Amino acid sequence: MQTYITLNDGTKIPQFGLGVYQVPEGEATYNAVLDALKIGVRHIDTAHAYQNERSVGKAVKDSGVPREEVWVTTKLWPHEYGEGKTAAAIDKMLERLGTDYIDLLLLHQQFGDYLGAWKDMEKAVKAGKVKSIGISNFESERLEELCEAATMKPSVLQVECHPYYQQNGLKKRIEKYGTVIESWYPIGHGDKGLINENVFTKLAQKYGKSNVQIILRWHIQEGTIVFPRTTNPQHMKENFDIFDFELTADEMAEIRALDCGKRFFNMTLAEQEANLGAWHPAD
Ligand SMILES: NC(=O)c1ccc[n+]([C@@H]2O[C@H](COP(=O)([O-])OP(=O)(O)OC[C@H]3O[C@@H](n4cnc5c(N)ncnc54)[C@H](OP(=O)(O)O)[C@@H]3O)[C@@H](O)[C@H]2O)c1
User: Fold this and answer.
1) Which of 57, 113, 205, 244 could share a disulfide with 97, CB 3.0–4.6 Å?
2) Going by CA atoms, what residue is nearest to atom 10 of ligand 1?
3) Treating both helix axes as pointing N-terminal to C-terminal, what angle do 211-222 and 233-240 enclose, rounded to 10 degrees?
4) How far is the CA of 228 from the centre of ligand 1 (A)?
């Protein structure tokens, strides 16, 4: 049985989902989301920047799964931040997704007028257009700035998190806000060095699972939310098949010992800001 986490606003999020970063709009995203919903996955993580919200929304609609059983997360890009501006961007998002409400709306990046955007996000919750709100990639002091200014504290913080980069410092910083970590790059963006670590191979043999399943199970038991990306139906089934076994406390500790500060996304804050430049996704 898949697990759910109760967020600080009382909503229940499926702890496992499908991420669709870098999956092209159209057939690829549509089929991946349909395949995921068919096998019982109930959580999809997209973003305006991924430019595939329309296909996500269409697949959710066509799947026949009641809308209230599917959790849809999407993210605002910095050019959409600002009081008034963000409200209009949310309405456009609802249109692209073809839905009356968004389950979880995130600020994708910690740049621009994120405080103004947050005010509109809180209003969207009150208006019933969005159920939960959160942030992504806020790792600098802007995290505390936003959390302190917020009336509704972020429900989630979505950041790079995997056995090589476990975000223990960040987890402590968000504890007092009741915010939960969502792990992006949960299997290291597919990095073979991480996946083939001896400890995963050993535990995979013990439990009759794959190395990737061991990593994903570790995330679940750590209490973080995961949405590995795949368009391969076999991988999708495999990734979701992690709710029938449990790692022991010693095995969890063995995996925790892999934490070594290694990230797979290495741009500095200044580089990221410069890299954003004038680029923004089409409406
Ligand atoms: N907020 C942000 O800034 C941010 C940034 C990055 C990502 N994200 C979110 O996090 C999600 C996951 O990140 P990600 O997609 O970059 O990295 P990931 O999920 O860690 O890794 C994806 C890679 O792993 C492979 N893979 C998946 N399942 C596998 C399996 N069972 N066995 C072997 N290989 C497997 C996939 O290839 P196949 O297709 O061949 O299976 C793909 O190459 C994204 O889709 C997105 O929703 C958010």
Assistant:
1) 57
2) 184
3) 40
4) 5
Residue 18's DSSP bridge partners are 44
Strand partners, 13: 5
In this predicted model, what pLDDT tens digit does every residue of 136-148 receive, in sequence order? 999 999 999 999 9
20 lines ligand 1 (CB under 6 A): yes
Does residue 262 lie in a domain region? no
Q: Is residue 156 part of a domain?
A: yes
Residue 18, domain CATH: 3.20.20.100
Number of domains within the chain = 1
Which residue is closest in CA terms to ligand 1's atom 41? 230
Q: How far is CA 164 from CA 140, 160, 183, 236, 272, in A?
A: 20, 10, 12, 23, 22
pTM of the predicted model as reported, rounded to 2 decimal places: 0.98
pLDDT digits (tens, 9 = 90+) for 73-118: 999 999 999 999 999 999 999 999 999 999 999 999 999 999 999 9
- Whether ligand 1 lies within 6 angstroms of the CB of 164 is answered as no
